[in-house]
Amino acid sequence: MTKFNFTRRRLLSTAAALAVAAALPQAAFAADPIKTAGIYTVPVEQQWVSRIHRAAEAAQARGDIEYTFTENVSNTDYARVMREYAEAGNKLIIGEVFGAEQEAREVAADYPDVAFLMGSSFKEDPSLPNFAVFDNYIQDAAYLSGIIAGSMTESGNIGMVGGFPIPEVNRLMHAFMAGAREMKPEITFQVSFIGSWFDPPKAKETAFAMIENGADVLYAERFGVSDAAQEKGILAIGNVIDTQADYPETVVASAIWHFEPTLDAAIAAVKAGNFTAADYGVYSFMKEGGSSLAPLGTFEGKVPQQALDLVAQRTKEIMEGGYVTEINDEEPKSS
User: Under a CB-based contact definition with an 8 Å cutoff, are residues 158 and 211 in contact?
Assistant: First the structure.
């Protein structure tokens, strides 16, 4: 999935279509549970998608939605799958369209009575009121995990392996780096992107190279990085999910994404009949319950108290609005 430019032309081709899409019909969302579909370009085990899938399963378990999903959908096939789910009567469709932005929005324009909630690097379009966007704005938790990392590195050299340099990855890396520098201003970073959302062997190979180049802590934005850290006996910081149970002597801390507030807000809007174009990214902020720093678990008592004190202070400030983690979507560089 790569970021690309697109125009929103042809999203609604006629005045009649605009009129139909101006407001979602109240009656369209009267049914309960809401028939909901998830469309994912990677396996549901992948970190990012697993959080969406988990939240959807929780919503289904409590009776709010009737949930089905398709995984491993290629970008070229994404629009077709969207249409099939819309034609099948789903009233809420969730997924991630980073590599199929224009096509996805054109499909949404053809089904104005279906609510689309899609992970996207772009913003909402008021002329397409049934298409809302979200992203994992978990920079608060990433910043806190960086503080932990900065306190644990002895070499002052941290390796960072990401998938693609798109905003949702870049902002987390920058926040992590800012947190690490709170503890060691002179710290250096090795930054690399593997060009895939799910290629553990390649991520592992990249991480090995960073270890050879002096890194003693790794930022595991992708699967495979923690495996390299474990094999070489160094530490890792997790992202989006907590993998410490799998790497009890390796993963010190993780920035966790909780998709539940995002999905729950969309479900409430669909039920109320007022779902509209909006940026649901705000529900990933820590103060909204959308992100958190995972418990230290096996590393309790091993993290310097100075770092723990700063984490506690910043957490309180973030929750109260006294500290705002910078959102920097630019591609991070080695430094």
Answer: no
